[in-house]
Write a structure and sequence with these properties.
Two copies of one chain form a homodimer. Chain A is mostly helical. Chain A has helices spanning about 5-20, 30-40, 45-55, 60-85, 100-105, 105-120, 130-145, 150-160, 165-175, 180-195, 195-225, 225-230, 235-240, 245-270, 275-290; strands at about 90-95, 95. Chain A has one domain (about 5-290): Orthogonal Bundle (Farnesyl Diphosphate Synthase), CATH 1.10.600. A two-stranded antiparallel sheet of chain A has the order 1-2. In chain A, strand 1 and strand 2 (about 95) form a beta hairpin. In chain A, helix 7 (about 130-145) runs antiparallel to helix 10, helix 10 (about 180-195) runs antiparallel to helix 11 (about 195-225) and helix 11 (about 195-225) packs parallel to helix 15 (about 275-290). At the A-B interface, helix 2, helix 4, helix 6, helix 7 and helix 8 of A face helix 2, helix 4, helix 6, helix 7 and helix 8 of B.
Amino acid sequence: MQRSLEEYISLIENKLSEYNPVRDNPQVKIYEAMNYSLGAGGKRLRPILLLEFCRIFGGREEDAMPFACALEMIHTYSLIHDDLPAMDNDELRRGKPTNHIVFGEAAAILAGDALLTKAFEICSKPSGCSAERQIRAINMLASFSGTDGMVGGQVVDLESENKDISMDTLRYMHSLKTGALIKAACMIGAVIGGADESGTEAAGMFAENLGIAFQIRDDILDVTGSEEELGKKTGSDEKLKKNTYVTFLGVKKSQELCREYSDKALKALDDIDSDTEFLAHMVGKLVDRNS
Amino acid sequence: MQRSLEEYISLIENKLSEYNPVRDNPQVKIYEAMNYSLGAGGKRLRPILLLEFCRIFGGREEDAMPFACALEMIHTYSLIHDDLPAMDNDELRRGKPTNHIVFGEAAAILAGDALLTKAFEICSKPSGCSAERQIRAINMLASFSGTDGMVGGQVVDLESENKDISMDTLRYMHSLKTGALIKAACMIGAVIGGADESGTEAAGMFAENLGIAFQIRDDILDVTGSEEELGKKTGSDEKLKKNTYVTFLGVKKSQELCREYSDKALKALDDIDSDTEFLAHMVGKLVDRNS
């Protein structure tokens, strides 16, 4: 059944709290710290992509849901750790104080660790999906999140601060830091949905191009966006002397490049023999977004 | 084939570096930071227990090895994060500077995240084990490492600092903080080895009692051990006003209690219809250890 964006978001947010119930025990603070960041909103882009790719390849929503929520947990843990004083030292995220501001630094580190662990716990529970397919999806989730995926991107980012890097390094960094989890979303959705190799590849191709377009838009918004709409301070890239598409190309050329990659993402959908209208609509929304 | 302790350690250490090759890419620092702590020695208690439990239940060593190494990666990540300035702020671990002292705080946080992620990556690779058994073991690994396992214990520890807690809370905290991964080791080994429910339960019972005995010995060594043998500063529990078995019971009573629990661990082995001599020998070694 084709869901609307709003339906997807509400489904995902309900499941996220179901998967992390607050229990009355001496470690209750950890559930609260996890739920604080899980419940802080956001676009839920990754879980939506995962569920929709499962749908278009004919899979069942309930088989994809644990992976969708796991991916959002991994995304959320990465934001909590990224905001820490030793990392980006951000005090505001999605318009709310960051996790360590509310719960303290030690609890924020542990809440991140716990979310990452919970992700693998929920997607390894017995499911209606075949164990082989489930294991393959777990392996993809871990690979895209680790040293050669998201965490690797954060390391490159860290190593690039206050340094002159090439545009190639910038692209490489983003392909891991933001790109890897978007790729995980689309490809895991395809695998759980039952896509064959060429379908899974098309999902990956779509994700790669969408990921770059998404990142360029992010860099543009840090310069042109309003703090109110974004829920975080703008101009922080410049303040931290971060390398971005805008510092390389300026706003106008970045906008053109963003359009180019979103067109490539749309083109990748042509290789998928299913109803991809929702996905095409999402690409448009993400590229024109103001937050 | 029955391995000696030394054979197990060398097998595990070789595999650990195999699983985390240093690759020549812009994020090379992360592999180095991970390997630094993975290679820093330690007793390799958890992976040895896992491999041995797999063996006594008739499983294949190569099926258990990814889980053994994954568990050691999870144990290692927890030490890296635990040593951070925002947590225990330790500068020395196993006689070497801690991870954040060598690589910086941000890289140490990411190295911990990466080790936790890698753990799930290596144990979800295709293996000779049935996918059902593999999934079950992954789920146990995650459960014992998370909010209701190791991370939960760290939260209780954090919340107990500078507070008067009951001996019940102390036991609860340790059952999670140290106990959970020891239980994971024995029970996952049993599951991969093909144990039935009663065998897996006996493995869990052995682990629970060994875990408590091990922790009491740890608390005793923080008071009576030599810094040279331990490779870390002693007396740190007292300095941090940590609640320990020794602060509750004194050294002598703690020693008696340690003996009591190790006897219970040995008794649990009676319920296992296999050759448990190696495990019994390990209990003896751990309880009499000076480091």
